[in-house]
Every structure is written in structure tokens, then in C-alpha cells.
Description:
The protein is of the alpha+beta class. It has helices spanning 3-25, 66-69, 239-242, 328-338, 353-370, 373-404, 406-416, 420-434, 443-461, 502-506, 510-523, 532-549, 554-577, 584-591, and strands at residues 74-78, 82-87, 93-102, 111-115, 124-133, 149-152, 155-156, 162-167, 172-180, 185-194, 200-211, 225-230, 233-238, 247-248, 253-260, 264-269, 273-279, 285-292, 297-303, 307-309, 314-325. Helices cover 34% and strands 24% of the residues. It has a 9-stranded antiparallel β-sheet with strand order 6-8-9-10-21-17-16-12-13. Strands 5, 11, 14, 15, 18, 19 and 20 form a 7-stranded antiparallel β-sheet that branches. A hairpin with a 4-residue loop joins strand 8 (162-167) and strand 9. The relative contact order is 0.10. The model is unreliable at 1-12, 21-49 and 54-68 (pLDDT under 50).
Amino acid sequence: MGDQNKNLLLATALSFIVILVWFVLFPPEQQAMDPIADGAVAEQAGGVAPAPPTGLDGAGIPDAPSEVAAEIPRVAIETPRLAGSISLQGGRIDDLLLRDYRETTDPDSANVRLLQPVGGQSAYYALYGWSPGGSLGFEDVPDASTIWTLAEGEVLAPGQPVVLTWENDSGLTFTRRIEIDENFLFTVTEGVSNAGEAAVRMTPYGIVARHGRPDTVDFFILHEGVVQMSDGSLEESKYRHMADFPVVERERARAEITEVTSNGWIGFTDKYWMTTLIPTPGQPFTAVSKYVPNADIYQTETRLPAVTVEPGQSAEMQTMLFAGAKEWETIRNYQNDLGIDRFIDSIDWGWFFFLTKPIFAVLHWLNGFIGNMGWSIIALTLILKAILFPLAYKSYVSMARMKELQPEMEKLKERAGDDRQKLQQEMMTLYREKKVNPAAGCLPILLQIPIFFSLYKVIFVTIELRHAPWIGWIDDLSAPDPSSIFNLFGLLPWAAPVPGSFLALIFIGIMPIVLGVSMWLQQKLNPAPTDPTQKMIFAWMPWIFMFMLGHFASGLVLYWIANNVITFTQQYIIMRSHGHKPDLFGNIVSGFRRTPQAK
Length: 599
């Protein structure tokens, strides 16, 4: 192989190592704000909706232990996928467990808790209400301390809505109808009827609030925090960035306010879970993401246009609340069936979305047939290799033709002697005459980089890979191989090192070792480079990759093993078809021989 081609291959390999090292280095309650003091919110001005009363606890809910909160009347939530309750104080949705998801792979571990009542740690809830306007005061509208009456229904379930009511002393009756489907979508209809003698004006709002900064994965390739769609524009803000929002005096907080003209949504996203406020598509609203520093509360809000209710009249506003797991199919169905604009983009597809989206769609489709994500990853690898095969074929043919030029290349080196410029010129002339592209062998390797990164992203962020088993000891394809040389892969009577510890970095598992061996065998299809430096680099490369990739998700390591095996098979067959029989055993033996030192 010519020096130019060797240098290109070496540069590509080293670049790939740098990228992977980069991945490794950047890895795998309190009292809330007081109500607005002036007692009434001004009419909408300049297109900005009035702020709702943000004094959630300050409005009357004590920052008390959870046993105090337990005394408040509640309405149970019972669906095939959710369990929890609604507090009649404030009518807030603040207690939610996900039946299908557990904290660990242990089937007896606790269910994942999404929402948490005020009074315990890390309160997280959805709250709806009305901001008063005109002659109304805060005492005339229900707030976070209001005790609602359960007027209809007993348990919130699919097809079994509940209706809450509250009346003030001015002839206004407020109703809140809450419905839920069989997955993760609540529909909340806020109603008000006016039996008084004067028209009233008010603004409906929805809030999702988190008390204190939540624990996050805090990995640079994953977004956790506010996720917002505003008329087709996706906006994201991490929790730490919310403290840098502009100060908005009328909000008594740091906030970003966006006017949405027709379609959008806003909420908080975690790695696998999300709670999102969704006004009816086509409905204009004001989207607010807010941080209240003195209370350490993070909020997202939707403020709908103000309504005027004449005496004897009534008004209704309907919004939706997604609270659950970020399942691709479930979210896609909500997007398609309900017209929720780009709801599928609430999943963090990243910069390579043009690859991650179709890769996951195919993987999900394969899993629907196969029923196992591990085998689906292998099938996906076969499809990707089939798509790239024409390019790979040209590459392997070019490499085979480069081998045929070796005798002529040696003659060129003898004629050129130490004249490197002359040698390069004559080599390029030879390539043109023989129609050989010396860089063709690098192209398949370069194409693997974005595919590798995209699959890494898919495995890391999609909940479908969370706790997904493959075979035997691999019970979570989103986690590293749990086996370890330290205890001979479970044969010795002591535990493997704790993941993330120094020993775990050294004593890798079965799959990383298979990965290293597959890369090593792929190398041995060709003789080792004659240059001692290149030979050393190529000799170490499989084992460096073995340790580097060994602590990535098992699904990613499985893909790389499958990719290596398929590539090995393709190269072997193509080389045989061009009259070159790879001396695999001979190349392995020669690799253990010491290279003679130049005299």
C-alpha cells in the first residue's frame, strides 16, 4: 500500500479515536413566591397576557410535611398505565406513577414517580386557574389554596371524567372537567358561568411547576429542562440557563415570554419523561418559561386570551396536559391524530436528526416484527451495510487494485530514491493511468462516524432502549455490559466492580472483548504495514477501541460487533472474487513476529 494511502488511513483512524475520546471525556421544600400585591391584574397590554398568581404556596398552601398534604381530599387516578391522584386543594394534578416503568431492571423495584405533591421533596405538579381582571380580585377566582368540590365522578379513568366545582360570593361558578386517555394525555376543560349582575373579565392559564432544581443526567448531548414549540420553532432551555433569563418585574421572576399565534406547547422534559402543557391546536396563547429565584421554583406557563363573561352567560377553555413517558409511537400518534405541531421533536434527536429519526423509525419497525431490541439492532446493521454496500464494494475493489500495484510502487521508490516530490508525482500519475483512487478505502470508515454517533444518540435518549433485554446477562441495552473479567464473568464468587469505578474501567465485560477480537480479525485480512510505527499503531488500535467502547451502552457495542462481522465477511468475499485469497492465519502469525530493525 502506498505511503499516501497509508497516511490517509492513519489520519482517519486517529481522527476516529479523537472523536471517541471526546465522547468519553464528556459523558457516557420551599415557600413559593407571594401573590402580586396590587390585588388585580391589569388588562392585556401590548399583546402580553396578564400574569397568573404565581404565589403557589404563598397563596395559602403550607410548606408542610407530606403527612399534612395527605389530609387534603383527593381524587384517585386509575388507568392501565398511570396511578395517582388529584388534590382537591387547588385542583392540581400532583401525584402520578408510571405503571409500565420501574426505577431499575429489578421487577420488584419501585415504579417511576413523575409528579410529586407539595410538602414533600422536589414537588412537581400541574395547576390550572384564572387570573382576575377588571373589577375582580384574587378572592373572586380559585387559586392554589381553593378547596374544590367533587361534583361528578369518583375515580379519574379512561371514559370516566371527573368534574370539580367552586363558587365565589359574587355569583361566579367555576368548573373544571378533567379527562384522561389510556396513555398519558389529560384533557382539562375550564368553565365559568356568571350569575351576577355585571360582566367579568379574566384570563385562563395553566402551570407546570418544579420546586428546586431536579436531578439530571447532565450529559452534554442530552437536553433536560424547558422544551417549547412556538409556531414551528423549537426552543430549549436547560435548568441552569433559566437563572440567566431577563428579569421581568411584573412577573417578579426571571422569565422568557413568547407570543404563539396558532400552534405550540411548552413544558419540562427529562431524559425519558415529560410534562407538557398543550393548548388546543389553532389557539393563540402566551408561552412563559420562568425561574423564581427567592423560592427556587421553575415554571412553564400557558396563558390563553382573556375572556369576558356577561351576566347570565358562561365560557369554556380546553387545554391538554401530557404527563408520561416519551414513547415515540405514543407521541407520534398524538401529533398525527390531534394536530399537535412537531410533538415528536420533544424527543431530543440532536443535530443529526436527519439520521437519528429514520434510524430509530426503522429500529422501532424491526422491533415490532422481531420483538427483541438486540436482534433488531443486528437487523438494522444488516440494512445499513446493505445500503452502503455499493460504496463499500468500490472501496474494497480499489484496495484490492492497490495491492496489485505494489510491485510497480516498489519500482517507483527505487527510481525516486530520496526525492519525495518526484515519488509523489509518479505515484499520482500511476493512479491516474490505472484508474485507482487511493482514498477510496477511507470513505466507508468516514461514513461510519455519523452513523455511529446517530445510533449512539438513539440508544442514549429513546425510552424504547431503556431496560430492553437482549440475551442472557444483557438485560439493559442502554447500559454497559454488566459482566466483568474481575470475577471471570460471574464464575468466581465475588461481585463485579461497581460501574464507573476505576476497576470497572479495567475489568471489562464479554461484549467489549468480542468487539476487540472482531476488530483484530478484520485487520488480519491484510498483512501488517511494513513501517514499524504504523504497524504498532494498527496493532494497538483494536484493544484501545475495546476499552474505550467497553463502557458505552451494550446496544452500541452490539452494533459495532455486528458491523465488524459483516464488514469482515464482505471484504473476504470481495477479495476472493478478485483472485486474492486472504492469508488470515499467516497474517495472524506474522503479527506476533518482531519487525527487524533497520541497520
